[in-house]
């Protein structure tokens, strides 16, 4: 299968990875294997959901971000900030204060991503009125979900509501405002403070789109730490005459579970958590589920409040934002944008840009071969192998399940003697000696796991 | 290749297992997703028919690179008037079954619409056998 189709924001640091295999067991698309005592990514299967990042006990998985100093390549430096950043701080911390810290870091304009959802509301209404489109339409808001559908549920690609995210709308708006005030496009840098890896991957290689209005990404944990440090050092964040939320209450919670679905007419469902999403799509693909008009699907539990780059508890983040939205009057305070036309002034311009025009392509992770007869032979072989593998998914072969080992073998990416049960059987029949078997085990798990190490997690002299 | 799956009458909780398994195999073979959908709809509808109406049943599937043949044989009440059962909206499902969202009388017509060939044989009081085939290469039903 082709590698390099998706850009991935997730990288495994070999020098840190202990090959513990927790990531391999957590991956919803079976995209990880262990060899030489390290986790390895099968790139064309990864959907950037970040479950491996979440699970890694030694922080060996890193999420790439742009070098922060890159923002200074631009005269106009826009920070696009999602509401969940603010939701991580206690109630007294205002968006205005957060905005001030970001400006002290070098940004010239701090803009809330959720403004972009103002454009999505009518855009979704429009696309829902296209009677020829299948039902349910599936939101393309979460890039990990779009990628999951591409690799696992190709039949549902036609159900994707081909709309860009609020993020892109906010970025187009900021660029347009600055251009209208005399800036050149090349002078404008739009940086997204991202809550997750999949948004990075989507910015770097947008699905079905050639170009993106977003210049770069900054990981949210980096910004969170900077704000927190300022907060701890000074006891409070610097006051500013900068703005408080101008986002409408219903768009403020757009990124939370049911935030988007509750703004859409008809029978809508909101599902969060990548395994829940997978289970639902499985049934939807079988046509076991019918009569739903619109689906909001989010890879993370609690939506973006559960993003892998958030530092606070997802339930508290969601609670804070919901409370904030409840106490917010529509268009509560527009003082900050008094000299800048707000996003509704560019309604028509942005609605023209909201559709994803290029085709979203299928990339099935299941397909064994492009040639049907060859695929058939491979499938038969893999099923014959399954007759011998124990079916207990112990993972000792370095693959997450017996079936994935069998499929790896027929794809020439695995070896039957990786299975400890097969080796034991062969040793019993004196077809393999113990040294060879031990060698295979070391080849998979690395030499380190066979020597005493008192520094490991949970051991006598734990140290990292 | 051939596979066999047992179906228990009344067990809606586990209905759909066979179609999920078959779906994965067809994806591995790189079968067009519109054809996969037709196979899955036929199989799922037929499986639910057994669960809803019969006492027990067996699904036999044979698969090669050209064609999938699915035989679903059940022990159950059988169908007295097959022509009538093939009409949209006709159903003998119990109110309990309908309450669960099944039994809208779309099962057999839906299978017929999605299959390349469909043969139904039934003996009232004994059971029903459905033989469904779908060509894995042709784009249309």
Q: What do you see in this structure?
A:
The complex is a heterodimer of chains A (464) and B (141). In chain A, β8, α8 and β9 form a beta-alpha-beta unit. Helices cover 36% and strands 10% of the residues of chain A. By secondary structure, chain A is an alpha/beta fold. Chain A is built from 17 helices and 11 strands. Chain A has 3 domains: 64 residues, 2-Layer Sandwich (Alpha-Beta Plaits); 208 residues, Rossmann fold, CATH 3.40.50; 84 residues, no CATH class. Chain B is α+β, with helices and mostly antiparallel strands and 141 residues long. Chain B has a single domain, classed as Histidine kinase-like ATPase, C-terminal domain (Heat Shock Protein 90). Helix content of chain B is 35%, strand content 28%. Chain B is built from 5 helices and 5 strands; from the N terminus they run βααββαααββ. Chain B has a 5-stranded antiparallel β-sheet, with helices on one face. The two termini of chain B are 23 Å apart. At the A-B interface, α11 and α14 of A face α1 and α2 of B.
**Unreliable segments of chain B (pLDDT under 50, ≥5 consecutive)?**
none
What would you call the shape of chain B? globular
- The CATH top-level class label of the largest domain in chain A: Alpha Beta
Cα-atom radius of gyration of chain B: 14 Å
CATH topology of the largest domain in chain A: Rossmann fold
């Amino acid at each position: 299968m082709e590698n390099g189709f998706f850009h991935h924001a997730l990288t495994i640091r070999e020098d840190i990875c202990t090959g513990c295999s927790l990531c391999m067991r957590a991956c919803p698309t079976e995209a990880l294997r262990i060899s030489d005592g390290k986790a390895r990514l099968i790139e064309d299967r990864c959907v950037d959901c970040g479950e491996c990042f979440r699970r890694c006990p030694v922080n060996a998985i890193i999420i790439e971000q742009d070098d922060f100093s890159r923002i200074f390549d631009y005269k106009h430096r826009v920070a696009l900030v999602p509401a969940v950043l603010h939701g991580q701080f206690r109630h007294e911390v205002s968006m205005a204060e957060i905005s001030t810290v970001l400006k002290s870091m070098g940004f010239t304009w701090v803009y809330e991503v959720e403004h972009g959802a103002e454009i999505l509301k009518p855009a979704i209404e429009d696309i829902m009125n296209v009677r020829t489109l299948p039902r349910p339409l599936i939101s393309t808001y979460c890039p990990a979900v779009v990628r999951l559908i591409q690799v696992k549920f190709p039949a549902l690609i036609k159900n994707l509501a081909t709309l860009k995210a609020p993020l892109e709308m906010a970025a187009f708006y900021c660029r347009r405002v600055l251009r209208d005030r005399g800036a050149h496009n090349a002078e404008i840098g739009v940086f997204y403070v991202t809550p997750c890896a999949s948004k990075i991957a989507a910015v770097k290689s947008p699905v079905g789109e050639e170009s993106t209005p977003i210049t770069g990404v900054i990981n949210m944990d980096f910004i969170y730490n900077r704000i927190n440090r300022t907060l701890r050092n000074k006891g409070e964040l610097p006051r500013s005459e900068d703005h408080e939320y101008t986002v409408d209450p219903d768009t403020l919670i757009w990124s939370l579970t049911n935030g988007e679905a509750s703004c859409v007419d008809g029978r809508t469902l909101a599902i969060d958590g990548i395994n829940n999403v997978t289970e639902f799509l499985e049934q939807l693909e079988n046509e076991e589920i019918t009569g739903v008009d619109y689906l909001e699907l989010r890879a993370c539990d609690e939506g973006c409040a559960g993003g892998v780059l958030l530092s606070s508890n997802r339930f508290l983040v969601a609670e804070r934002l919901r409370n904030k939205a409840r106490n917010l009057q529509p268009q509560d305070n527009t003082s900050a944008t008094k000299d800048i036309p707000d996003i509704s002034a560019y309604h028509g311009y942005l609605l023209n840009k909201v559709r994803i025009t290029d085709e979203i392509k299928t990339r099935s992770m299941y397909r064994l071969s492009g040639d049907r007869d060859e695929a058939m032979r491979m499938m038969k072989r893999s099923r014959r192998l399954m007759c011998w593998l124990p079916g207990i998914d112990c993972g000792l072969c370095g693959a997450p399940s017996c079936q994935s080992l069998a499929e790896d073998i027929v794809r020439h990416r695995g070896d039957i003697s990786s299975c400890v049960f097969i080796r034991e059987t062969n040793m019993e029949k004196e077809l393999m000696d113990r040294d060879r078997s031990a060698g295979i085990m070391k080849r998979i798990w690395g030499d380190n796991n066979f020597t005493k190490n008192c520094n490991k997690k949970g051991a006598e002299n734990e140290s990292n | 290749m051939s596979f066999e799956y047992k179906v228990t009458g009344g067990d809606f909780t586990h209905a759909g297992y066979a179609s999920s398994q078959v779906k994965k195999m067809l994806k591995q073979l790189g079968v067009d997703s519109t054809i996969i959908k037709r196979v899955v709809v036929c199989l799922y509808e037929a499986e639910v028919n057994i669960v809803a109406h019969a006492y027990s049943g067996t699904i036999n599937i044979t698969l090669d690179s050209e064609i999938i043949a699915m035989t679903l044989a059940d022990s159950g009440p059988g169908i007295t008037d097959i022509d009538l059962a093939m009409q949209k909206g006709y159903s003998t499902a119990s109110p309990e079954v309908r309450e669960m969202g099944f039994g809208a009388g779309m099962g057999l017509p839906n299978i017929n619409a999605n299959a390349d060939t469909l043969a139904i044989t039934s003996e009232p009081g004994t059971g029903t056998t459905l033989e469904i085939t779908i060509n894995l290469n042709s784009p249309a039903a």
